[in-house]
Amino acid sequence: MTTWAQSLIRISNYEVETLQKRLAEISDRKAQTELRLAMLEAEAEGEQDRARQDVDAAMMLRAYLNGWKQKKAAVQADVAAIEAEEEGARDALTSAFEELKKFEHVAETTRLNALLAAGKRETAAFDEMGLRRRAV
Asked: How would DSSP label each residue in 17-39?
């Protein structure tokens, strides 16, 4: 394999690895944000249970739920933004993999062409040697 092909493959591998790390970080952030959303849901259920048992809590429940809805909307917006970022990262990773495979294919084709050329040269050399022996 030629050095230029090795360099291109090495650079492409680095890019793929970098994008994989980025995608993993985005996935972690998404999981944390979804966990926050689940915790908000559980917290609201707890407050509703408490409101059923306590009259003072029942009077403040409506205000709590209004604030809770705003928090939930903000977290859902965060999840949507992270999902969009994740989709972009996946697309970039797919493109990087395609580019890597193209470089690997070109390098393999170059290697095979070199082997074929070497085989043709060897065959031509043997043919030349055979012709020289006949001529003698």
From this structure: HHHHHHHHHHHHHHHHHHHHHHH
Name which residue leads in pLDDT, 9 or 82: 82
**Which residue, 38, 36, 40, 37, is CA-closest to 64?**
40
Q: Please choose, from the candidates 42, 49, 48, the residue with its C-alpha nearest in 3D space to the C-alpha of residue 72.
A: 42
Question: For residue 89, which of 81, 10, 11 has the smallest C-alpha distance?
Answer: 81
Question: What is the C-alpha separation between 79 and 36, in angstroms, rounded?
Answer: 10
89-112 pLDDT per residue, tens:
999 999 999 998 988 898 888 888
CA–CA gap between residue 11 and residue 94 (Å, rounded)? 16
- Please return the burial class of 16, using the count of CB atoms within 10 Å of its CB with bins 0-12, 13-18 and 19+: middle
Cα separation, 19 vs 107, whole angstroms: 23
Give the angle 12-83-37 at the CA atoms, nearest 5°.
Answer: 140
Report the alpha-carbon distance of residue 76 to residue 38 in Å, rounded: 11
Return d(Cα 121, Cα 118) in angstroms, integer: 5
d(CA 124, CA 6): 30
d(CA 130, CA 63): 100
